[in-house]
# Entry
Amino acid sequence: MMEVVRAWLARLWSEAVSIWASGGWAMWAIAIIAFLMLALGIHTWLRLRRLGYKEVPEDQWRTWIERPRGRSGHIGDILDFVTGGSKIEETAFFFEQLRRTEAAPFERDLKVMKIFVSAAPLVGLLGTVTGMLATFNALATGSGGDKTMGLIASGISEALVTTETGLVVALPGLFFQYYLSRRFDHYRSFLAHMETVCAQVLHRRRSADEQRVVEQAAVHQVKALLQRAVS
# Structure
């Protein structure tokens, strides 16, 4: 059984190398694009995983807003940064700074990855054009026979293989880039929701402080009236 599998893998590898060689110079450009796109996508995916915003339940980080001592991980670091102020305006400023420092690298990497996805089929199309030019050149300069037919077949093979390879690279890259964009959008929605919760907590604190001041003022007025009545 293992010998059959090895023979099948060897035959598959031989066919893949043969097809690759027939694609011409454009195959190397597509391979470089595919490698860079995959490396950038995996790097972005790992960075999104390290954010850990899905691992902390909402009830827990809501508690961390009121109790800073229990904070931990990346979410705890975020709360340490954004809850340093005592006003809603300061909290909004801290969240804006957080978006600039954290979101900007993700936006840049996703844009670059989108460029790679678009470039793969375009390079494949360029290989198609060069393959067709080689085919027409063989037709124009050839005198018939097996040599001319070989040149024509080589040009057509280059034209078709590069187009197919460019599409094969671009389609998975497109879905991968869309998946990463969706995860990044979820993280931005998470930050927006956290900002709303922090603003609500500050608003409740401010209302409680104002109510306490009003009550203290009322107590002082009552004491003053009682002192006047006694005197």
